[in-house]
Amino acid sequence: MVAFPALRPFAESYRTGFLRAGKAVDGEKVLAGLGIGSVALWLGYIVIAKPPPLQGLLAFPISFALAALAVDRYVKFCTARRLAKFSDQLEVTLRLMSGGLSVGLGINQALVTVVDESPEPTRSEFLRVVGQSNVGISIYDALDQLAARMPSAEMTMFSRTIRIQSQTGGNLVKVIEHLAATIKARRRLQRKIRAISAEGRASGWVIGMLPVGVAVILVVTQPDMRKAIFSTFPGHMSLIAMAVLEGIGAFIIASMLKIDV
Description:
The protein has helices at residues 8-20, 27-49, 53-102, 107-117, 122-134, 139-149, 153-168, 172-196, 198-221, 223-231, 233-257.
């Protein structure tokens, strides 16, 4: 349990975030690691830069913010990678389900087949759907919750298709097969887009990392410049300006290369 009750919502938030990323992590341990990382980052700044006492004191909340940002970026990276993997497996999942339905299985039995035959993360996510249906939750509500946990246009279409078909009737097997074919076509188009935009993305990484690499080389090889950057007000303003400009440039390049399908 968290020693400070006020921190419990933050611990639960981290636990939920890591769980969505496919990692069962204790939220209290994440908070403890965040605190240790913040102190380590702050002490490293104090040792390297040797700032005045007031600047050193003000650097601690900045260190904590940077550590929290790093954890947040890591969780979002893992979540995005897991979601992409789930989306790539969805076409095969739908074809497994349509195959089960075509031989006379019900929706629940078809989902059990999906759980038995699918790799992670599809297996664990649909296993949760089956478990929810076994304890009395509607299969349609369980699929809606799955669409909320693994948000994508394809999963949303799938959950809505199942719900609408239950109300209007029709050939569910053909509907799912058409949906699987649509997902296959979308994936093919997305791969073409990534191939076409590969050069632009590589250029963005080079443009973004070049100033950082030059700055690191100068700091390592030029002690006087390192002292000027980390120990003076103009140096701090230069770091802030560089970070802002780098962020603006990355945002512009990402916006230029973003194509919705």
